[in-house]
Amino acid sequence: MTNPTPEKIPTDGVSKKLKAFVLLLTAVTLMALVAVFTKLAMKPRGQAKIESTAPASNQSLSDEYNAVGTRLMNSGLKEQAIDQFIAIWEIQRVGSPERAKAAQKVGRLYADLGNCQEALVWLFRAEAADSTLPLQPLMDSCLAKIRSVKSSK
Question: Which residue has the higher pLDDT, 125 or 151?
Fold first, then answer.
């Protein structure tokens, strides 16, 4: 049973009012999306916020590592103390006095353990970071030990 009179499909297109409404709605949607993406692009990154608070937390963390390292060193646990002072060296800014002092302590501990080659690495790092530290006598004694070992072979 077919419909004897099929419905006529309009041939003149869509009404002008409907076209205007669709164009207006499209323009409003486009402006809203541009506003949203502009706001997202201008929003400060969360990482920048974390970095701005990092120096204060790095300093307190550095102080904690220093306290633990000093206690370990005074208890005779020099290898464990070395780990603490290396952690300070890793978290401090390049060229900071704390970084130089940590490298000096690591070098001194390695020298106390008899590992002059590793001690010199850290003493040279300390000297590069802060040339005012009194490192020369310890470096000279380590260099003399290394030379005497090489000459005896």
Answer: 125
Residue 76 DSSP SS3: coil
Q: Which residue has the tokens 């306290």?
A: 67
Of the candidates 132, 88, 93, the residue with the CA atom closest to the CA atom of residue 109: 88
Q: Given the structure tokens 């390292």, which residue do they identify?
A: 69
The CATH number given to whatever domain includes residue 88 is 1.25.40.10
CA dist 123 and 139 (Å) reads: 7
How many percent of the chain have pLDDT more than 90? 24
Question: How many structural domains compose the chain?
Answer: 1
pLDDT in tens, 6-39: 777 666 777 888 889 999 999 999 999 999 999 8
Provide the domain limits for residue 80. Answer: 56-152
**CA 27 to chain CA mean position, Å:** 44
Residue 126 phi, psi dihedral angles, 5° rounding: -65, -40
Structure-token pair, residue 28: 């409003």
| Domain annotation covers residue 12 | no
Residue 28 lies in a domain: no
